[in-house]
Amino acid sequence: MIQTVAWIVSLIFMLFITIVFGVVVLKSKEKRDYDPIKKKWYKARSFYGTTLVVFFLVITIYTLRELPYNQPVYGEGKDPTIVDVEALQFGWNFSETEFKVGEPIEFHVTSADVNHGFGIYDEDRNLLAQTQAMPEYTNKVYVTFDEPGTYDILCLEYCGLAHHLMIQSIEVTE
Amino acid sequence: MSSLVNKGELKQRNGQIASYLIIGAVVIAVMMVFGILMLLAQGGMLNLSAANFYQFLTIHGTGMIGAAAFAAAGVMWYFLRDYVQLSKKIFTWNLVLFLIGVVMVIIGVFSFEYASSWTFLYPLPALSANAWGTVGALLYLVGMLVLGVGFLLLYIDTGRAIIKKYGSLGKGLGWDVISGKKAEKDAPPPTVVASTMVTIVNVTALTAGATVLIMNIINVVNPAFTFDPLLAKNLTYAFGHIFANSIIYMGVIVVYEILPRYTNRPWKSNRIFLIAWTMSTTFTLLIYTHHMLMDSVMPKWMLIMGQALSYANGLPVLVITAYGALMIVYKSGIKWDMASGLAFISMFGWTVGVVPAIVDATIVVNHVMHNTKWVPGHFHMYMGLGAVAMLFAFMYYLAKVDSNLETTILDKIALIVYTLAIISVSGQFLVSGAISTPRRWATHFPEWMGPALFGGIAGVFMFLATVIFIVHFISYIQVRGTSTGSDFDDKKVA
C-alpha cells in the first residue's frame, strides 16, 4: 500500500535527520577552529548535494512513469463503465452504484455547487483513489476493483457544515 | 549595527517590535486552544457542534497563519532595519490594519458563524447552505483584505528600501555576485537576501490573494457575478502557499543573525548561498500547483512541474541552509541558551518537516494522501517546530539583548516540553494520514480517534509551554531597555 511506503520512507529520512542534528549537538561543546571544518564539510557538501540531486531525479522519473491522470489502456471489447458523479451540499448523485470485480470504471466527477473531494475508501477505511469535485469542471478517476465489498465515497474537500456527513456507499460483487 | 543607534531610539523601536511579537505569540497560543478543542472533539472526548468545529477550524487556520506571518514580519523588520532604511510609519500602519482585520475576522466567524476555513474556496463563501449569511462572509473576506493590504504595504516598503540601497531586487538577491560582476565579499548579507526573497514572493502572493478575495466579495454581494472556479482555486493556493511559506523564510533570518553571534563564526552570503535563495524564490512562486494535484483538469505539465519543483525546492534548505546551521554549530563551543536552543531546534523542525512534505508532493502518493491528515502533519512540523520556534527564539534573544532579564529552569523545561509536544502533535497527524483519516472532519470514525485524542493531550502541553515563553516575554517588556552598554548584543551572547 502506498500509504505504508510513504510512512516508512518518511520515518527513515526523518530519523536520519534527527541523528545528524543530534550528533552535531553532542559535538557542539567541543571548540575547534572553523576554517578546517569549513574546508572539510564544504567538500562533503559537494558530494552530498550531488547525491541528493541525482536521488531526486531518479525518484522523480520513477514516480512519474504512471500517473493517475492517464486513461488506462483497455483490452479489446472491454470498454470501461462510465459513471457520472455529481457532488452537492451535502450528498452525491451517482448514475450507477453497483459494479463487478475486474470491471474497468471511469468516474466522471463534477459538482453542482461548491468544491468537494471524491475519495474512494475500501472496507478497512483505506483511501484507494481520489479526485476533486469542482463546479463547471469534470475530473476523472480510473478504477478497477479487485475485491468484492462495500466501498464508501467520502468528501475530501471542506464544503460546509455537513461536509463530514457526505458518505455514499457503492457495491462491488463477484 | 545596534551600537550606531542611541539607546532611547532603540527602546522605542524595540517597543514596536515587541508589540508585533507579543500580539503574534498570544494569538498563536489562543489558536492552539482551538486546535486542541478540535482534536479532542475528533478524538471523541469533547462534544462540539459541527458549526462550532468548523468555526474553530476557520479561525485556527486564519489566526495561525496571520499571527505567525505578523510576528515573522516583526523579526524581519528588526534585523533588516540594520541594513536598509525602513519606514516606521508603514510598520505602524501594518500593525493597525492587522488589528482591524483581526477584529473583523473574529466578528465574522464568531458573531455571524462564518466558517469557510481559511482557504475560502470559491464559491463556498457565498454558498454556505444557509450556515452563514452575507454579513459574516463580508466581514471575513474584507477583514482578510484589510490584513493583506497592511502586509502588502509593508513588503512594498521593504522592496523600496532594498532597491534604494542595493539598486534592484535582483541585486538584493545577489544576482550581480552570481554573475561574477561583483565580488563575493560585497554580496548582500543573508538578512537582505532573505528579505528580498520574501518581498518578491509576498507581493505576488498578496496580489493573487487580494484578487480572489475581491472576486469573492463581489460574488457574495451579487451572486449573478461569477468567475472561473479553477482560476479562483489557482489564485487561492498561489496566495495561501506562498504566504504561509514566507513565514519560515522571514523566521530563518533570526537563525542567520544569532547563530553566528553565539558561535563567533561568520555566516556570510557566497555564490552557492545566493543561488540557493534564487532557487527558493523561483520555486516558492511556482510550486503551489502541488496543492492541485488532484485536479486532473489542470494542464498536466503544471502538475508534473508541481511535483518536480517541490522536490527541487527541498534542495536549498537541505543542502544550504540546514547544512550551514549544522556546520556553524559543529564543534563551535556554543553556549546553549533558550534563544540559541530554539533557533537550532527550528532548523531541525524545518528540515525534518520537508521530508513528509516532499513525499506528499509526489503525484502517486498525493492520489491517496491529499486532504488526509498527512498534510497538517507535515506543516505542523515545519511550521510549529520550525517557523514558530524561530519566533520564540527571537523573543528570547530580544529579551536577552534588550534587558537584564534572566531565564529560569522553567523556561528550559518549557523548551523540552514544547519540542516533544509539537513532535507528538505532528506525529499523530502523520499517523492519521497514513491510515487515511481525512482532514477537516468534525467527527471521526472510532478507528481514527486514537491519534486525534493523543494529539489533543499533547497540544495541552504545547500550549502550557507556549504560555511560559509568553510570560517570559511579557516580563521582558516590563523591564526592556535595562540592558547595559550600547553594543550589548554581541557581548551578551558570546
Automatic annotation (TrEMBL), chain A:
**TM annotation in the entry:** 6-26, 47-64
Q: Where in the cell is it found?
A: Cell envelope
Gene Ontology CC annotations of this record: cell envelope; membrane
For this protein, what reaction is catalysed?
A: 4 Fe(II)-[cytochrome c] + O2 + 8 H(+)(in) = 4 Fe(III)-[cytochrome c] + 2 H2O + 4 H(+)(out)
Cite the Gene3D superfamilies for this sequence. Answer: Cupredoxins - blue copper proteins
Cross-referenced PROSITE patterns: COX2, COX2_CUA
| Principal subcellular localisation of the protein | other
Annotated GO molecular function terms are: copper ion binding; cytochrome-c oxidase activity
Q: Could you tell me which residue ranges the Cytochrome oxidase subunit II copper A binding domain spans?
A: 78-174
Q: Which UniProt keywords apply?
A: Copper, Membrane, Metal-binding, Transmembrane, Transmembrane helix
Q: A single Pfam family, by name? A: COX2
Q: Which domain of life is it from?
A: Bacteria
Q: What is this protein for, i.e. what is its function? A: Subunits I and II form the functional core of the enzyme complex. Electrons originating in cytochrome c are transferred via heme a and Cu(A) to the binuclear center formed by heme a3 and Cu(B).
Record's protein name: Cytochrome aa3 subunit 2
UniProtKB/TrEMBL annotation, chain B:
| Pfam families in the record | COX1
Q: Top-down, what is the taxonomic lineage of the species of origin?
A: Bacteria, Bacillati, Bacillota, Bacilli, Bacillales
Instruction: Report a single Gene Ontology molecular function.
Output: cytochrome-c oxidase activity
Source organism (scientific name):
Ornithinibacillus caprae
SUPFAM superfamilies, per the entry: Cytochrome c oxidase subunit I-like
Q: Return the protein name.
A: Cytochrome C oxidase subunit I
Gene3D superfamilies given in the database record: Cytochrome c oxidase-like, subunit I domain
Which residue numbers delimit the Cytochrome oxidase subunit I profile domain? 20-494
Q: Please name the GO terms of the biological process aspect recorded for this protein, alphabetically.
A: aerobic respiration
User: Quick one: a GO cellular component term?
Assistant: membrane
What keywords would UniProt list here? Electron transport, Membrane, Respiratory chain, Transmembrane, Transmembrane helix, Transport
Alphabetized PANTHER family for the sequence? CYTOCHROME C OXIDASE SUBUNIT 1
**What stretches pass through the bilayer?**
20-41, 53-79, 91-112, 132-156, 191-218, 238-259, 271-288, 308-330, 342-359, 379-398, 410-431, 451-474
